[in-house]
Amino acid sequence: MVDPELLAARLAHAQRLGNMGWAEWNLRTGAVMWSDQVYAIFGRDPGAGPLPLAELARHVEPADLAALDELLWTVVRGVEPVQAEFRVRRDGGDVRNLRVVLEPLMAPGGPTGVHGVIQDITGRRRAERIMSESRRQLLEARVQAAEERHVMLALREAILPEPVGCLDLPRTRIAVRYVPAEKTASLGGDWFEAAALPDGRALLAIGDVSGHGLPAIAHMAQLRHALIGLTMTGVPPNRVLAWLNDLVLHRLSGTTATAIIGHLDTATRVFAWGQAGNLAPILVRDGVASPLCPPAGVLLGATCDRPYLLASTPLRAGDLLLMFTDGLVERRTRDIDEGLDLVMTAACKLPGCDLDEGLDRLLADIGGPNPEDDACLLAVGILG
């Protein structure tokens, strides 16, 4: 047989853990009994004794009196157990949320008393309010992020509209893609340029400005517009890179950028190009993909005393040249060499197919858009 004192101690411990207690009101004699935990819930000195049922209203917040009245009216009618939630102001002055379950004690002639279980649910309601506020703030943040993404993408589109389908330049087919990062905050300054020059050559360029968000997009716009103007001078790509490096060093302080700038002579099929810290283009020839050997060239904005050299790559009919920024191959979840291998494997499928659709397949083959960084691709097919 369980020791009554031990049983009482365990019951009191359970009431403390659940922050609940019991109370009983005798409707005929007016006698009231409270467990110790009910005194704790009401912040009441046990020496002051329990509250009669009729005096509960003095401790209930005015806005919740209707709930208490309905509770008491229902239970004294002796129908069935009833419950309600209301707030009480404790003797110490603070307000607590209570859940009260009352049950009539029946006898011939009607109810003789009321038995109640009272639980302090203040902590639970506080946690629910915190969670509700957190959900509201999260929803607002998502809406704001979506709006910011829309603005940034619209700005990029205004600065750098993406051609629909392939570009038709003499003896070449060119397709481009701008692939935005999945995360709004990671939209950055990747850019491309593909255009016919006055002398009949084609300008092919791609690059990435450091950073993300509107500052990176603004710097990208300045760099790309400067490129277009400097290209009209007719100087070689490595000289254009040197001028752009001066621009970044002196006008875009704190910024660096990568780039590849090339001139494709569509008559001789020679691609003359220079690079500034960008991954080398991939050449696909006879079903084999391999990166070109890059000429010397450091990041734009890194230093003013390192030369940018020029490389000349003869191309053939049927060749395909793929230029891209590092967002295409770099992922947090894989090594960059693994990303390059995936791109080269996918690039081997591009020759002989529609380049515009081919770039979509290439992106799917390498795992889709980069969650952390945007990317640009420029594919050039050499026609016969």
Describe the secondary-structure layout:
Elements: H1 4-18, E1 20-26, E2 32-34, H2 36-42, H3 65-76, E3 82-89, E4 95-107, E5 110-120, H4 122-159, E6 167-169, E7 172-179, E8 188-196, E9 202-212, H5 213-231, H6 237-251, E10 257-265, E11 270-276, E12 282-285, E13 288-291, E14 311-314, E15 320-324, H7 336-347, H8 355-365, E16 375-382
Antiparallel strand pairs: 1-2, 1-5, 3-4, 4-5, 6-7, 7-16, 8-9, 9-10, 10-11, 11-14, 12-13, 12-15, 15-16
Structure description:
- By secondary structure, the chain is α+β, with helices and mostly antiparallel strands.
- It has two domains: 4-120, PAS domain (Beta-Lactamase, 2-Layer Sandwich), CATH 3.30.450; 160-382, Phosphatase 2c, domain 1 (4-Layer Sandwich), CATH 3.60.40.
- It is 34% helix and 30% strand.
- It is built from eight helices and 16 strands.
- The chain has helices at 4-18, 36-42, 65-76, 122-159, 213-231, 237-251, 336-347, 355-365; strands at residues 20-26, 32-34, 82-89, 95-107, 110-120, 167-169, 172-179, 188-196, 202-212, 257-265, 270-276, 282-285, 288-291, 311-314, 320-324, 375-382.
- The strands form three sheets. A six-stranded antiparallel beta sheet has the order 6-7-16-15-12-13, covered by helices on one side. Strands 2-1-5-4-3 form a five-stranded antiparallel beta sheet, with helices on both faces. It has a five-stranded antiparallel beta sheet with strand order 8-9-10-11-14, with helices on one face.
- A hairpin with a 2-residue loop joins strand 6 (167-169) and strand 7.
- The mean pLDDT is 87.
